[in-house]
Amino acid sequence: MNSEAVASDLPLPLVFAAKNHSDSVRFNSSSGGAFQAFASYVISHGGIVYGCEFDENLRATHIRCETLEEVERCMGSKYSQSAMKNVIPCITEDIENGRFVMFTGTPCQVDAVRKTCGTKVCTVDIVCHGVPSPLLFQMHLKFLEAKLQDPIVKYEHRPKNKGWGHHERIWTAKGSSFQDTRLSESWKRLFYDNRMLRPSCYECPYATTERSSDITIADYWGIDNTELAGFNDDLGTSVVIANSAYGYALLHECDLELQPTSMQDVLPKNPMLVRPSRYSGERDEVWQYLFRNGYEAMLRKYHFYPSTVRRFGWNVKTALRRISN
User: Count of H helices and E strands in the chain?
Assistant: First the structure.
């Protein structure tokens, strides 16, 4: 597909709920499998996909994909900043060689690619919550390994074995897995506290509906509160936003079930479409405590790794809220 050949007077952006037609793909995706659908189309047309995988050291890293097997390594969420390495020079070379190229990443990464490589690359960004540093995530992995006395060989931020949600799962070299424990949930608690994100994330200029990407993707959190509640089967539904005529045309070439929706319905549970992440309390205090006292002490101090008693209390409160609702 030639992006320059697509012309339209569509009232962009246009917003859709989307599900990959393959339940297997959706099960192995964080939300509705939209990324895999785009990537599959590009690969089947002789193109190149750039996405983010966990490398052998569980560092989030962008890679160049020529096969669907390589694309599969990029499926699923990574909640730390990815290393771009030599991606932009590789994209430039692929474009010069006449290859169809798609790049996926955070909005700031997409903007860097777009400004460097121009409009000949198809760009897909995410509704980004903000990113912790890769060093912090490596500290976390070392903390887990020390607790479990076993190397961590696989980390899943958003597996679907317990439905569409956020239930982090870790795998060790001895074949053990841990999920929904205070240990395995500690990174999620740290992440959503928001004080451990990169400083630039709190002033992100890309947290807006005016995107430089062709397509934006996210989870359709809150779909049950819209007219599309019946579209949700708990296997994951994506929000896909066509920001350009090219993006709109690509959506309709891919193996996706699409239902029109509105920005108004999407925004309540995806606020980072219009504003950066915020935090309460003292951010510097947490970081200072980390470097003075170590990672585990910081987790305990700020309740990212709560005591057994505290976690039990939280679980009771959650259960009571569900009953009352």
Answer: 12, 11
